[in-house]
Amino acid sequence: MNHKRPATDPLIVTVLVFPGVRLLDVTGPIEVFTTANEFGGRYRVQIASEDGAEVMTSAGIRLSADLSADDVQEPCDVLVIPGGPEWETLIKDDALLDTVRQLNEKSRCTASVCTGAFLLAAAGLLNGRRAATHWRHSRQLASRFPSVRVQPDAIFVRDGQMMTSAGVSAGIDLSLALVEDHYGAEVARSVAKDMVVFMQRPGGQSQFSVRSRVPHTRQEMLRRVLDTVAENPGANHTLTAMARRAGVSVRHVTRLFDEEVGTTPGRYVEQVRLEAAQALLETGDDPMPVVARRTGFGSPESLRRAFVRHLGVTPGAFRTSFRTTGVGTEDPAPAALSP
Asked: Which residues form the HTH araC/xylS-type domain (predicted)?
């Protein structure tokens, strides 16, 4: 899908809304696409509900729809399926699931935000595919829909025409990625600057900020290796293991990393694992041994050394910095450097 579209006919983005939808899941992507129009993009955004009526969001704000699902006649370039706090009820709504399937058939790319992945999974659209959702719900997505290959640490995942993203703000990350696909990195970068958001967020729920900084490579087998590391940083990623996955020699994979990525395989793996650890420390309360094991560092001491070497702080100090915004405090004492 990495094709830059000429500024000819506008690309159509259809956003499905329903009672109880989360407001930012809807407005975040819309803001990205409409802001892109100020920098050379050409998007036409339309909001559809099942019957064309307005809906009440989970925030208590009413949203008007432009048309009903049945009135969506022409194919759309992007279909956005947002989520909602009451996703357990939504996935039992057969009419809503039928609407999701109906709209998906008319879409070139279907993208979910947060718990919208549950709607796609319940509609049978994620069977056999990799997917992401909010970290709090990733285990439930995996257990309820075992045919879905859940990527618990990813900000967003692309698998064929389907894209799924993590928590609510990750819909912005996903939408920026689509803008870059359609109109190039400069347009996406301009949108990110205008919205004062990261083009590639450092850490967050995913390791994809490291992966997305790597220049595009024409080597398909190298792309597979890079994606495998990013998707599962805790797995075995020794040089020998990566060479075996790629089907080439250790010397060849080392040369490819040097020529295509500009670093060594070991440094790339450590960068990915470091951002994966940042994500877990920012969003969860797992003890350090668990964080170290899940991200491939093995031990808290190895994790600590990597943090100090690259970030200049310990994992404990890093986690503490995300416990408060600092608003409302005066002359706060520096956080203690705990392991």
From this structure: 223-321
Tell which residue, 78, 62, 99, 73, has the closest CA to residue 11.
78
CA distance 66 to 63: 10
99 close to 152: Cβ distance less than 8 angstroms: no
pLDDT tens-digit readout, 66-123: 999 999 999 999 999 999 999 999 999 999 999 999 999 999 999 999 999 999 999 9
Of 55, 63, 114, 303, which one is the catalytic site residue?
Answer: 114
Query: 251 near 261, Cβ under 8 Å?
Result: no
Active site residue 114: yes
- The predicted model scores a pTM of 0.62
Domains of the chain: 11-195 (3.40.50.880), 208-320 (1.10.10.60)
The angle subtended at Cα 210 by Cα 208 and Cα 216, nearest 5°, is 90
- Residue 166 to residue 203: CA distance in whole angstroms: 13
Q: Is 178 helix (H, G, I), strand (E, B) or coil?
A: helix
